[in-house]
Amino acid sequence: MTRTCRCPFFVLSSLFLVLVFSAPNLLFAQSVSPAKLSVHWEELTASDFREGIHRSQGTCLLPFGILEKHGPHLPLGTDLLDVRYAALHAAEQEYAVVFPEYYFGQIAEARHEPGTMAYSRNLQLALLQETTDEMARNGCKKVLIVNGHGGNDSLLPYFAQTQLDKPHDYVVYVFDERTPQHGGPVRKTTIDMHAGESETSKMMISRPDTVHQDRAKNEPGADQARQKLPEDVYTGIWWYTRFPNHYSGDGSAATKELGEYQMNWWIDSVVKAIRAVKGDDISLKLQNEFYEKSMHPLDTQP
Ligand SMILES: [Zn+2]
Question: N or C end: fewer C-beta atoms under 10 angstroms in the chain?
Fold first, then answer.
């Protein structure tokens, strides 16, 4: 009886003493190595950043957006907001450090519209190079660019190709898919390239407060098809000839259900890309071999 009465008191008081004496150590340990690290580069302390790079195995994401008109009903930052939503959620599932807002890409074709920020081609390449160089200097030996803007489709592979011009101690990877081709709720529209059914649906998930769906029919999003050239002949004015209002499709057809399906697909796809990049130990090795051989090409044997 006595023992059963005193035991809980003894256990409780011992527990109290243990907590009092170990609490500062626990707190200290938590500040050095937190169980939950933010994936946002800008939210990490310097020491947590070091831990983040270690935890991500040197894999960092550079979500790439743009500031460009998106029909009459979506915000200028649609691509930036969407790609960051997908990348940040993916990094939460498969840890990676995510670089802050980046929107310094190719968008010359929207210079006639309000709010477009179109940097010169030299600056686009120079800024991107210095950004990835600086990321790598800080331990991001695998930089995964997650593209959110269709106008970057040529810029980013070109940027990746130019990494071979001189030695770099890191690899640039480009992930450039945003919309699943199959599955999910059936789409009602056939033209759906920009601010249309898919993009409007995704924005209903990432930033529904910025979607003005009631304005989606205020401008036409039809293909004006004004250029009469074979499909395999390319010009820089092609987009303007077809969609001069920076609207391709019909945002009024968008639904939250479609947005949920497409955004989940996008997040899953980025998660898979992060895992593949983390598991890739070939690219840097062969890149180094290539740089070395390129110093003395006459010695290269088949
Ligand atoms: Zn867009």
Answer: C
